[in-house]
Design goal:
This protein is an alpha+beta fold and 567 residues long. It is built from 14 helices and twelve strands. Helix 9 runs antiparallel to helix 10 and helix 9 crosses helix 11.
């Protein structure tokens, strides 16, 4: 009994020690995940679990977002998950999104980007798969953009498919990077906008991004009126609804602005602190963690380079084997056609020879019959002469018969001679026909003696040349043993690949400019919005986001603070 009591006590103790949990749903760009979280977990515990699940190491760009009464908020790392103002109804939902954006994606991003891009959805272009109409059900562009141009849905599909095919064979990481390089040059890239008022009460927009703080007119979110880079800002704080910005130069007075909601102030402060930290971090030497990540990324890139080279070699050998197979099949078909034609010629020759032989035999019999008739005519003529009657009448009749007999004999002789010539010609034709028959048989023998036509290669299995290199069993991961010489060679290849990539990137930019010029003629000016007009005017002036901000920061910080106060 004591043992049973002890067992029950142990079970009860174990049951009490089990932590209470709640369910969290994480929504990413591509999927949804659910986790059981302990009640005591802080935001960092949940965020780290999500990052480990996604295999993400560049965690500083991302966060878990939720919504409070139509206001966006981010999960705080040092605060318990359930202490946030989130719905207590399970599962508690957060969105895993980019919270901060790099200044230069090409230089800052180490891992492959896990965005939901066109390339990732469809893979490389394959004409046998991506046929006309495969994009018919896709929302290729916002309806506002489609309505802005005199181009039908089918015209956009055709243009996008054409570009898709033109960039066939581009590596996935290159495609992702080109996408981000285009995105990061857009005026609204990575900017979070907030409604504010300066001390005069003027309604303005505050833009917070990787470069600094920007002040906009509410009607124009593209071109800021004034900017303050992060390296000019020493401190940011707020009290109630009032924000205070302290410039790095202590001789310059602080400047202030008001926002409408307390929750918005918290969000502004979070974004300012995070962006400022990343801004300063980029301008310092890489931490040990980032150095390790970059070293691993270089090694991974070297492995991928070798893998791409291996796949390229295999693809080349497969294409060569397919070309050889097609050539053998074509040659086999050609030989079969030649054999069929030779056999038909042989049959025609045999039929012609049989006909000529039969005709020659008939001609010989006719010639013999004509010769016999000529002999009989000669005998009749001699008989008539022997028994001729002496009377004039009989003599005249006799002469007439003799003349007719002579004419008949002459005609018979000519006919006999013609028939004899015809028989000689037919014998000659027969000899030629038999010679043709002999040649046809010889040709057929030559064709059929070219034995062992190579069997056609099945489309499901492609033969490779006997000297093709082996890369291990199917499904087995190749192993790599890097030596100093290998690393030097790979470094040179990576550098060469980088140069090629830069050339491709330049070519892509030129193509983009050509496309803009081409579709500009199809734009419906009357459907342009105010932002469309501002963007077009800026583009016509050759302006860009970075050039605009650079011009705005040419003036001193003090003059820009004064300008802001007077807006």
């Amino acid at each position: 009994m004591a043992g049973a009591i002890a067992s029950r006590m142990s079970f009860s103790s174990l049951k009490r020690k089990q932590p209470k949990t709640f369910t969290v749903r994480i929504v990413t760009m591509d999927a949804e995940m659910e986790f059981n979280c302990e009640m005591k977990w802080k935001g960092k515990d949940l965020f780290d679990l999500v990052c480990r699940t996604l295999g993400l190491r560049e965690t500083w760009f991302f966060g878990l977002q939720y919504t409070i009464k139509d206001t966006v908020a981010w999960l705080k790392m040092d605060k318990k998950v359930l202490d946030h103002d989130v719905s207590k109804e399970e599962p508690v939902t957060f969105h895993f999104l980019a919270k901060f954006y790099p200044e230069n994606a090409e230089e800052e991003l180490v891992q492959e980007i896990t965005q939901h891009l066109f390339f990732l959805q469809y893979g490389d272009y394959d004409p046998s798969v991506h046929k006309r109409g495969f994009l018919a059900q896709e929302e290729l562009l916002p309806k506002r953009v489609i309505n802005l141009y005199q181009m039908t849905q089918e015209m956009w599909e055709e243009r996008i498919t054409s570009w898709y095919a033109e960039h066939r064979g581009r590596a996935r990481d290159e495609a992702e990077m080109e996408y981000l390089k285009i995105a990061q040059d857009l005026e609204m890239y990575g900017v979070n906008y907030f409604a504010i008022r300066n001390k005069k009460g003027t309604e303005l927009l505050l833009g917070v991004d990787a470069l600094g703080l920007h002040i906009y007119d509410p009607e124009n979110r593209l071109t800021p009126k004034i900017s303050f880079p992060w390296n000019e800002i020493r401190n940011i704080s707020y009290s109630d609804k009032e924000f205070t910005i302290k410039p790095l130069d202590k001789k310059i007075d602080v400047f202030k602005f008001n926002s409408s909601k307390l929750r918005v102030n918290k969000l502004i402060l979070q974004l300012c602190i995070g962006n400022h930290d990343l801004f300063m971090r980029r301008r310092k030497a890489d931490s040990l963690e980032v150095q390790q990540m970059k070293a691993q990324a270089r090694e991974e890139k070297a492995r991928k380079q070798m893998e791409r080279q291996r796949l390229a070699r295999e693809k080349q050998m497969r294409e060569e084997a397919e070309r050889t197979r097609d050539e053998l099949e074509r040659r086999l078909l050609q030989l079969k056609e030649e054999a069929t034609m030779a056999n038909e010629a042989l049959m025609r020759s045999e039929e012609t020879a049989d006909l000529l032989a039969e005709k020659a035999q008939i001609t010989e019999e006719e010639a013999k019959l004509l010769a016999q008739k000529a002999a009989e005519a000669e005998q009749e003529m001699q008989r008539v002469k022997a028994t001729a009657i002496r009377t004039e009448e009989e003599k005249r009749l006799m002469e007439q018969k003799v003349l007719e007999a002579e004419m008949l004999a002459l005609k018979m002789a000519e006919e006999s001679e013609r028939r004899a010539k015809e028989a000689d010609q037919l014998k000659q034709d027969l000899q030629e026909a038999r010679e043709s028959e002999r040649r046809a048989k010889q040709k057929l023998l030559e064709i059929t003696s070219k034995a062992s036509y190579p069997p056609p290669v099945s489309s499901s299995t492609t033969a490779l040349p006997p000297d093709a290199p082996s890369f291990g069993l199917m499904g087995e991961s190749p192993s790599f043993d890097f030596k100093d010489t290998d690393m030097k060679r790979l470094s040179m290849e990576i550098e060469r690949e980088k140069v090629e990539y830069m050339e491709k990137s330049k070519h892509l930019q030129e193509q983009l400019n050509e496309l803009k010029t081409e579709i500009e003629a199809l734009k419906l000016k009357e459907r342009e919005t105010a932002l469309d007009i501002v963007h077009s005017e800026s583009s016509d002036r050759g302006g860009s986001k970075h050039n605009t901000i650079r011009k705005l920061t040419l003036q001193s910080t003090k003059s820009r603070v004064a300008f802001f106060e007077e807006l």
